[in-house]
Amino acid sequence: MNEQDIDTTTPNVARVYDYYLGGGANFEADREFANKMLAILPEARIAAIANRRFQGRAVRFAAQQGVRQFLDLGAGIPTAHPTHEVARAVHPDAKVVYVDSEPIAAAHGVRKLSGDERAISVRARLQDVDEVIEKAGELLDFTEPVTVMALAILHFVPDEEDPDGILARYAAATVPGSHAVVSHATAEGAAGMRTAAVAARYTASANRSGHLRSKERFTAMLTPYELVAPGVVWTKQWRPDDPVEAEDPEASAMYAAVGRKR
Ligand SMILES: C[S@@+](CC[C@H](N)C(=O)[O-])C[C@H]1O[C@@H](n2cnc3c(N)ncnc32)[C@H](O)[C@@H]1O
Asked: Among 52, 71, 101, 123, which residue has the most ligand 1 atoms within 8 Å of its CB, making it the best to mutate?
């Protein structure tokens, strides 16, 4: 990581999200921005935690379907229960490639994974599909099923960059039996107007623009996959371990789905 890559004075989505989750890899500008967002949308913290919990349940599910390889796009700063730990509770030999465009997230990943021969962290943009597949191919075997993960990241991709097409290209690079684990922020639901206000502030102040999408749009993105029950739901509602976890589902502010490639 080059020093000049790191701007600690502009709020950064990876570090703001880390702060929502109670992590320590954030700076004053991130905390100040996050606290302003929490004043508008106190659910942001609940939403981040619910999203991570969905991720854990979905990775465990995919592993239980026999998938041993994971491509975690926009993985973020490594935090509690990262993908390789969850997957290896099912398959101790599971392999994971973490991808993030932010130098700080990729660098934390490299540090955390040093010495691990079955997990790597790569700095790349998920839009650069060929580059990501090529780098991931140094560890993953794309002739075997791979779980492609895109959690809380596609809402940073504008329509002009074709998020549907990007997801379709990742799906095309994988064999039948592969899975997708995806979540996406929305302005639908009880907190919708306040979520939209937060997205507008991300666009104005942080280093990423927010693009909230409807359940219908999100479902259309998942066309390359056959959705696993219960289909597209709020993150809190996707196969909760305990029914209490699914209470107040709209506080999730994000839709979730798991798909299987036919
Ligand atoms: C809200 S965090 C989500 C982290 C993790 N996927 C999760 O759901 O817990 C979004 C992450 O996506 C990364 N990101 C944003 N745009 C990206 C892009 N175009 N390519 C790769 N990563 C990106 C950010 O740096 C950040 O770490």
From this structure: 101
* pTM beyond 0.85: yes
CATH architecture of 3-260: 3-Layer(aba) Sandwich (3.40)
Among protein residues, the one with the nearest Cα to ligand 1's atom 23 is: 74
pLDDT in tens, 59-80: 999 999 999 999 999 999 988 8
For residue 162, give the amino acid letter. Answer: D
Q: Note whether 261 and 177 are within 8 A (CB).
A: yes
Phi, psi of 159 (to 5 degrees): -55, -40
Contacts of 169 (CB under 8 A, 6+ apart): 129
Nearest Cα to Cα of residue 135 among 143, 144, 126: 126
CB 249 within 8 A of CB 162: no
| Rounded-to-integer distance, Cα 121 and Cα 115, Å | 12
Which secondary structure element, helix H or strand E, spans residue 147, and what is its range? strand 147-151
Say yes or no: CB of residue 100 within 6 Å of ligand 1: yes
Q: Is the pLDDT of residue 252 over 90?
A: yes
Q: What is the pLDDT of residues 197-235, one digit of tens each?
A: 999 999 888 778 899 999 999 999 999 999 999 999 999
What's the gap in Å between 74 CA and the centre of ligand 1? 3
**What residue spans define the domains of the chain?**
3-260
